Amino acid sequence: MTEREAMEIAGEAVTAAKQAGASEAEATLSQARRFHVEARDKTISKLEQSTGATLHVRLFLDGRRVTVSTSDLTRESVQRALNAAVEQAREVAPDPLATLPDTCSRFEGDLRLFDSAIAQRDDALKVDDVLALEKMIRDADARVVNSSGSHYNDASSVNALANSSGFSAAYTATRASLSSAPVAQHDGVKRTGHYGTAGRFLRDLESASEVSRVAARRAVELFGARKPETARLPVIFERDVAAAVLDDLFSAVNAGNVAIGNSWLAGRLGERIGSDLVTIVDDGTLPEKLGSSPFDGEGVATRRTPVFERGTLRSFLFDTYYARKLGEQSTGNSNGGGIGPNNLYLEPGTQTLDELIAATPRGVIVLDTIGFATEHATGNYSRGARGFMIENGELSYPIDEFTVAGNFADMLAAMDAVANDLRFDSAVVSPSFRIAEMTISGS
Amino acid sequence: MLDQDLLNRLLMRALRHGGDFADVFCERRRSYAFRLQDGKIHEGSSAITQGVGIRVVLGESAGYAYSDDLSIDALMRAADAASLVARTLPSGDEMTIALKDVDVPRLYDEERQSHAPASQYVALLSRADVTARKYDPRITSVNAQITDELQDVWIASSDGRFVHDHRPMVTLGVQAVATSNRERGSGYVGDGGRTSIVFYETSTPETLASDAARIATTNLEAIPAPAGEMEMVVGSGGGGVLLHEAVGHGLESDFNRRGTSLYSGRVGERVASELVTIYDDGDIPDARGSVAVDDEGVPGQHKVLVENGVLRGYMQDTLNARLMGAQPTGSGRRQSFRFLPQPRMCNTYMPDGTSSVDEIIASTKRGLYAKSFAGGQVEISKGDFVFMVAEGYLIEDGKVTRPVKNATIVGNGPDVMTKVTAVGNDSRLSRGHYTCGKGGQHVPVGVGMPTVKIASVTVGGTQND
Fold it and tell me: Smallest Cα–Cα separation from A157: which of A71, A50, A68, A67?
């Protein structure tokens, strides 16, 4: 589908919504062509390729808001769904803030989101990549005896938005990823390692040999792990785990959560909360990055928003509705149904992760976490974790079956070192960082 | 959705390069929802998910393609794309498939084709809102949502089976936030099943909302959870999350066929305390995790996973059952037509033991009473898991004392299962609306358990004494 065709379908849906009785309407059409191959050892275990489209329409009837989402794009079906939505709207409470954005536009810079090398890549090369990965993880370490699969994924998408204020725009984008999950066995214990790389451009992906090297290392490095003693210690969050912490923090700066009291940061704008090292930015305008786009889910131009500056909370992330509710401006963070991050990242520091470890006399480095227990209303954080004990600035022995816990406000205040290893392999990313003290709960 | 003649042609097209097996999964899902916020109906929504997924299986390989465009051309293209997994084979013999309707067990007590009048959903949300706010003046925010969904699936397989299932699903959830000075506590309670909103005449919005408000205000007064090893009493119902994470995932056949689970090749072995019996049932009427037939057209059924501590069997989908020389168990499930089926849990639970709840609590010197859970996660190969306590209390000298907040339990599945020292006589399926995520796919499940005592777990709080 071309951008023009997608804009036409979105435009027709807006017209149909108006005809059905909406006072205002907005339609988003997303079409994607997806490819996925999974290999295990010498076998192609999954080969998937598909094209699909979803139409998402928001209707406003004098402040009553309803949404319709459908993968059935036939005219009659869309019209029927829109007519039903107008009926449904009668039960919704009118809210004067529920209207289209006042101004819609697109970021005018060249974001370079589309890589023809991905769109035109020969399927055979993608298959070769995952078969090579499967071989390399086994060659990397004799204890790698199995795998949960090596994967290559890519997608080319067209995204169009039209609304009844006359805005109509579209963009195309690509993404690709390569990942592997080797399973190692040693002394009757199995362990899985995961590592992957992703980007909007094929040339941004790390090589298969790099992916296999890190994935295999992760599968074997924690053999012999023991449960640490319960203690309060400095904790280093390695890059990928650090990104998950930032993802949690996003929920607290999501203006939707702030407005309903489900954020520990509610009412604390302008307060100094973190240490000097806490500078967190949301930026939808970084060229070639996975979280970038010229406009958000309701046609507001993306921008750069400092969220924390040297520890001070500067802004929440808004769509139009919650910006009005809290007396602010949209930050271009609508994701259609709610509020989502663009590229949300912690500003990197200057030292390497190895230097950061060397500068930690005693502590813990967390390499992986499981669970998702953050109470956003209170900021209480707790995760199951694995990693290493650090003694005298060196990785001393592997540890697992413990939890790392604290409160987000205390954690941000105690962030005392940030590494330089930021990479943009997702919309929410972070360099490794250290928190001066958290609770490690083990034996 | 598609006529049998076209389904036949798609199956033959998909198998034109060969393959052991092919199926066509057609889905039409309609959902209808309202959300309440700030005491008002904030938003209404509806969604249609419609499309066709075509799969070709060859040995342990699966080719897959879906299309939401139902034109014959687009569907034939999808069949061609799925067939590519067998491309390296010489062309097979021309095959003929004669599709036959297969009866589906009647599991959901209704055949309705549309949602109820909008006003009925809105009334349920408003009742929840009023109840939560009245419960305690410290309740400062109430959010609630209700969803009613009807999913039709039609599955045609190259072995000639043609199956249709009509699956309803309702869910209602209430979140209450309590505020006092700078302290905040939140509580979430939901319920639902494969039925209609008549369900909420029994599990009323008043009960759900007052329980959410009670948990929120309790958490306001809760002390930080302790850190370190201690005894744990797992509450009945929602405690089943422990079984789901600590054992259930490890018994899904894909991990076991591939040898990546710690339970691989261990059927017949002792894997848990002899007090432990675990079932996974797909055929409990109206339950959230039930399927009259799974997403490969195999009837949902009662499965014995662990019996008196001994591993009895895995949960099988068609592909893995075929490779392992086993029978499919009605466990092949998918999030939607956009996904390949995977072996998944349905309603996982432990039946009654012999201890009374009072005995179990009284026998606990210092421990955590985990009454309900917010969810969990497991790592399959070694079996390490976590789960998060939504409502927890300290047990001191055999008595339930203070509420604690922010407790995460961490442990190793097989290790914890050997430490089960008492099983209560109060088994029940949990209220709630649990959703299980695996390989990027989410499916509704149920969990259940009696009150159970575990000799030692690690509680990951912040209070280190």
Answer: A50
Instruction: Inspect the interface and report whether the beta carbons of A441 and B385 lie closer than 8 Å.
Output: no
Interface confidence, given as ipTM, is: 0.92
Residues 19 through 48 of chain A touching chain B, CB cutoff 8 Å: 40, 43-48
CA dist B93 and B89 (Å) reads 12
Task: Return the H-helix or E-strand segment holding A211.
Answer: helix A208-220
Mutate to test the interface with A, among B87, B458, B459 (most CBs of A within 10 A): B458
Q: Count other C-beta atoms under 10 Å from residue A146's C-beta.
A: 21
Rounded distance between C-alpha atoms, residue A383 and residue A369, angstroms: 6
In this predicted structure, what is the pLDDT of residue B352? 96
β-pair type (A433-441, A394-407): antiparallel
Cross-chain Cβ contact A404/B411 below 8 Å: no
Chain A: residue whose CA lies nearest to B59: A45
Hey, is the C-beta of A116 within 8 angstroms of any chain B C-beta?
no
Instruction: Give the mean pLDDT per block of 10 residues along chain A (443 residues).
Output: 96 97 97 96 92 96 96 95 96 95 95 96 93 96 94 97 97 98 92 95 96 96 94 96 95 94 91 98 98 97 98 98 96 94 98 97 95 79 93 96 92 98 96 96 89
φ, ψ of residue B460 to 5 degrees: the values are -100, 70
Rounded Cα–Cα distance for residues B28 and B155 (Å) = 12
- DSSP 8-state code for residue A267: T
Phi, psi for A241 (deg, rounded to 5):
-75, -35
CA distance A380 to chain B (A): 6
- Cα angle: B407, vertex B409, B415; to 5 degrees: 165
Q: How far is A402 from chain B (nearest CA, A)?
A: 6
pLDDT in tens, B323-338: 999 999 999 999 999 9
Contact A378 B185 (CB under 8 A): yes
Are A377 and B228 a contacting pair at CB < 8 A? no
Contacts for B103 with CB less than 8 Å, ≥ 6 apart: none
pLDDT score for B91: 56
Q: What pLDDT score does B196 carry?
A: 95
Domains and CATH numbers, chain B: 118-150+166-222 (3.30.2290.10), 227-460 (no CATH)
Residues of B in contact with A441 (CB under 8 A): 227-228, 410, 458-461, 464
**Which CATH number is associated with domain A3-220?**
3.30.2290.10
- In angstroms, the CA A117 to CA A156 distance is 11
The answer to whether A262 contacts B48, with C-beta atoms less than 8 Å apart, is no
Burial pattern A227-262, b for ≥16 Cβ within 10 A else e, equals bbebbebbbbbbbbbbbbbbbbbbbbbbbbbbbbbb
Work out whether strand B161-180 and strand B100-101 pair parallel, antiparallel, or are unpaired.
parallel
Distance (Å, whole) CA A36 – CA A376: 35
Three-state DSSP class for residue A320:
helix
DSSP-assigned letter for residue A343: S
For A403, which of B37, B62, B458 is closest by C-beta distance? B458
Taking the CA of residue B183 and the nearest CA in chain A, the distance in Å comes to 7
State the pLDDT at residue B186: 86
Cα angle, residue A214 at apex, residues A211 and A217 outer, rounded to 5°: 140
The residue whose two tokens read 């045609």 is B156
Domain ranges of chain A: 3-220, 224-443
> Which parts of chain B have pLDDT scores under 50?
none
Closest C-alpha among B186, B212, B221 to residue B132: B212
Helix (H, G, I), strand (E, B) or coil at B458: strand
B346 vs B323: CA distance, rounded Å: 22
